[in-house]
Design a protein that fits this description.
This protein has four helices and five strands; from the N terminus they run βαββαααββ. It is an alpha+beta fold and 127 residues long. The N and C termini lie far apart (28 Å).
């Protein structure tokens, strides 16, 4: 696990406990759980429109297009994810998305497919 050292300090209006307990822990925890070999990189930045971008990128199992559609749904997880993490309930990303949206943010996943890692990006309006 590595954290981008060029991270600045950014302000968002949020429930810090919910973000740290259910969003950041979930996104980082999933990246670690599904990366058997390789790396996980966490970064925080601000884009040109002023949004705060929290990103977790890994070199793990990746996500196919079919599974991407259900990742953030209640009880949804990918077929390949069950092979790696049989203890997954499929509710972590659903809960994280609900909290992010309650903070007027968005979240999405990017992956070039199975075996090619993934990136989860949460965007929040700055305070």
């Amino acid at each position: 696990l590595s954290i981008d050292e060029n991270v600045g300090q950014y302000m968002i209006s949020a429930d810090a406990d919910k973000l740290s307990e259910h969003v950041f822990r979930n996104l980082i925890g999933n990246a670690i759980a599904y990366t058997i070999k390789g790396s996980v990189v966490v970064s925080l930045s601000k884009d040109s429109s002023g949004k705060i971008i929290f990103s977790v990128k890994d070199t793990g199992v990746g996500i196919n297009d079919e599974d991407k559609k259900r990742l953030f749904t209640e009880g949804g997880h990918g077929k390949d994810s069950i092979k790696v993490n049989a203890h997954s309930t499929g509710y972590g990303l659903y809960i994280a998305k609900s909290i992010i949206e309650a903070h007027k943010g968005t979240v999405h996943a990017q992956s070039d497919g199975t075996g090619k890692g993934s990136q989860f990006i949460a965007e929040f309006p700055s305070a």
